[in-house]
Amino acid sequence: MYKSLIVVFLFIANIVLANAVKSVELEYYLPNAATYNPAIPAPESVLGYQVGDWHIRPEQIERYFMALADSSPRMRVEVIGYTHERRPLILAYVSSPENLANLETLRQQHLSGEKSAETPVVTWMGYSVHGNEPSGSNSSVLFAYHLAAANDEQTLAFLSDQIIIIDPMLNPDGLARFAHWANMYKAKNLNPDPKNIEHNENWPRGRTNHYWFDLNRDWLLLQHPESQARVAQFQKWRPHILTDFHEMGTNSTYFFQPGVPSRQNPLTPESNFKMTAKIAEFHAKALDEIGSLYYTKESFDDFYYGKGSTYPDIHGSVGILFEQASSRGHLQKSSYGELSFPFTIRNQLTASFSTIEAAQNLQADLKAMQRGFINESAQLARADRNRGVVVGSADQYRLAEMSRILTGHNIDHYPLAKDLAIKGQKFASDNSLIIPLRQKQYRLIKAMFETRTKFKDKVFYDVSTWNMAMSLGLDYAFVSRSDYEDNLKGSFEQKATSELNIDEATIALAFDWNNMQTSQLLSQLLTNKLRVQTVTKSTQMRTSSGLQQLSLGSIILPLENQHKDKNAIAALLKPMLEKARIKPVQIQSGLATNGIDLGSPSLPVVKPIKPLLVIGEGMSSYSAGEIWHLLDQRLSQTLTMMTKSQLAKLKSIDYSHIIIAGSNPNFDETTTAKLKSWLEQGGVMIAHGQGAKWITEQQWTSSEAKTFDKPVDTEVAYDKKSQTDAEHVVGGAIAKAKIDTTHPLGFGLDSEALNVFKRGNLAFTEPREAFVSIARFTDKPLASGYMSQANRDHIANQTSIFVQAVGNGRVIGFSDNPVFRGYFLGTAKVFVNALYFGKIIRSPARTEPKEDEKKDVKKK
C-alpha cells in the first residue's frame, strides 16, 4: 500500500512537472522546421530554450543574429548605432547570396530608379519599438531563422526578388527592462491571473527608452540616438514597405492597417491607402489559416508623421502598423481565453510572412507607386505658389537644432545668403536658414511647417500638429515665387574656433543669454563654483570691441575676486567655449555708459542650483523623462530624482528646486506642510499641467484652474459619440500665448509671441496681484492643430504661466508641458529660465480675496 502511494505520487509529480515546464515545439511556429538546413543554428541551440519559454534579452537577440550571419550566406548584420545605455542597434540584410554580394549597387539603382523593374523590392521589418511589447522582437528571431535556413521554392524566390531588412529591436533598453521583469517573476507553474505581479510592471515600465521617451513618436523629431540611427538608414534605403510590430491591451485580438480612412494625413496620397488595403488581404488570409481573429478599420490612425508606421507614408513607402493583444508576461487571462506568449509570437510571425508574400506578389505595383509618388511630389512642388521656407532666430542653438533635424531627414537647406523681409518679417542672413521646396522631400517639408486647423475627422490617436518652427521657437515664413531667388542660398562654412585671449584690461566676461547653449555654460560655471551674475535691466558697457548693449539675461562672469585667477578661468573656459561656439564679450569697465553698473543690485548673483525631480508611481514617466533629458543632455545639470515616499521621509529638504512634472503628486498633509515650510525658506517649486493645478489647490497662488463647462448635446445619435467626445479633447495642438520678455522667465526669447504645446484644456484664471501672470493665451489662441471652438473660448486670454511668492520662495506653474517630447525648445527656454533665475524673481505673495469676491466664489 505504502509503495503504491509512492508510485502514484511520483506519477502525479511527473505530470505536474511536465505541465510546468512544457514548451511549444519549433513546429508550432514553423510547421516545416524539420526540413531546414541543419548547418544553420536554430534559435534553441543558441538561446538554450525555445522561443516563447522565456523573454529573449537584447544581447541574446544580437548574439543569435550574429550566429546566423556567421553561418548563412543569406544574411549580413550591421551595427548602425548605440542606445543611450550603449546597447548596439543592429540591422540584418537578408537576401540571396548574389544580391548581398551586390548590395550597394542594388541600393543605388533602387534610389535612382535605374533598372527599377529589375532591382529587388526592399522590405523593412521593424519590431517592438515599445520594449514591453516583446512579441515582435521575439518573432524576429524565428523569422530570421526561417529566411536563413529554409530551402523551399517560395523562400528562395523571396530571397531572390527582395532585400529584406530586419530591425529586430527598435528599443533595446526598454526591451531589456521588460524582459528582466517578466523573466524575474516567471513561475514554473504559469499564473494567468492579470493581477499577478508578472503582468504589472513597476514604474517607469519597459515601454520607453532610457530617458522614458516613447520612441514611436520620435521618427520625425530625432531627439534620440535610436531614432537618429534608424532614420539615417531609412533615408539610405527608402524601402517599399516598412512594418511596425506592436502590442495592445490583453482583451483584444489582432489589428493591422489600413485603419480608419478618414484619419489618414491628407498629405499622404490615396494610392498609399489603397496599397495598404491590398496588402491587408494577404495578412487576412494568413491569419485565417491559423484561426486568429483580427480587425483592420478601427482605432488607429495614420496622421502623425512621427510614428514608425506613418513616417514611411510621406516618402512613397507603405508603413504598416500591427497590434497584437499582449500577454504582458508568459500567460494571462483575457476576454478570448488564456493568452500565451507563444501565441502572440506566432501571430506576429505569421504577419511577417504575409508581408513578404505581399511584397513578392505586389512588387511591380509597389515600385510603380513609389515612382509615382516621386513624380507627383515634383509636380506639386513646381505648382506650389511658394518656393521655399525661411526660418530664423537670434538663438544659434535652436537654429542649429533645426538644421540638425533637417539634415537627419535628408532635407536640403542653406544659410540665408542675404537679409530678407517677407510681409513685415525680417530675417537676417547671419541667423536664418532657407529651405527650398523644389526637392525630393517636398511633401515632408510641407508636413513639418503646415498649420492645419480644419480636419475631416476630429479623432486623433496622437497629436494633430507638430510645426517644427513653432515648436523650436523660431520665426518662419514661406517664400513666394516672386521673393525667391537662387542667390538666397548660402553655404555652410566651418567656422574657425576663436582663441580666448583675455585682454589685460578686461574685468569681466559677458555671454549672451539669447543663445540657449549659454545655459549649459552657466551650469558648468556654477558647478565650478564661480560667481556669476545676470543682467535684469538694460545696460550698455565699454568692451574690448567698443560700446555694447547687453541683452536681458546675459551672464556676467567677473574675473576678479574668484577662487580662480584669470589664467585658470581662461583654461577652464576654453574647452567649454569651443564646444558651445560662444564668443564672450570682454567688459573693460564696471561703469555702464548707459543703464546699470556692474555692481548694481539689478545684476544679481545667480546661485548654484540643486534640483529634485519627483518621480515614481502616480507621476507621468513621459513628463519626468523629458525634464531629465533636458537637464542631463542639454544643460549638463546634475539632477536628483526621488519618489514621493522618499521625499516624505526626508527630515529636511536641502534642494534648491522641486520639479513636479505633469501629474498631481497627491502629497499627504504632512509632506505638503513640509514643502510649504521649505518654500517659505526660499525654495523654488516648478510644476506643469496637473502638478501646477495642485499648486493652485494649496492656495499658494491667487490664480486658480479655470473650470471647463463642457457643452452637452443630450440628443446626439450614438454613432456620433466618438466625434462628439473628440470636440472636448485637446489631444495635441499648438496655442498662441504672449509672454513678458522683460520678466526673467522671458529672458532670451526672440519675441513676446510664445507657442505653447496644448494638451488638455487646463488654463489658469487671472491672479489678483500684478507681476504674477507672466504669459497669457491670446484672444484667438489656436495656432495649429485641432481645438474645438469651446476649448478655444475656454483658454482665450487666460494665464498659461504664473509665478508667485510663498514667503522667501517661489512657485512657478505652467499650464502645459514646456519640454514636450524634448523638442519644444521655445517653451523649454522658459523652463530653463525658471531653473536658473527662479530665485531672483521679485514676485508678490498671494493676497486674500475681498468680501465681494468671496461671495462670487460661493455663488459659483
TrEMBL record:
Family annotation (CDD domains): M14-like (cd06238)
Every Peptidase M14 domain range: 53-340
GO MF terms held by the record: metallocarboxypeptidase activity; zinc ion binding
Pfam families, alphabetized: Peptidase_M14
A biological process term (GO) from this entry: proteolysis
Top-level division of the source organism's lineage: Bacteria
Family, similarity comment: Belongs to the peptidase M14 family.
Protein's name in the database: Peptidase M14 domain-containing protein
Organism: Aliikangiella marina
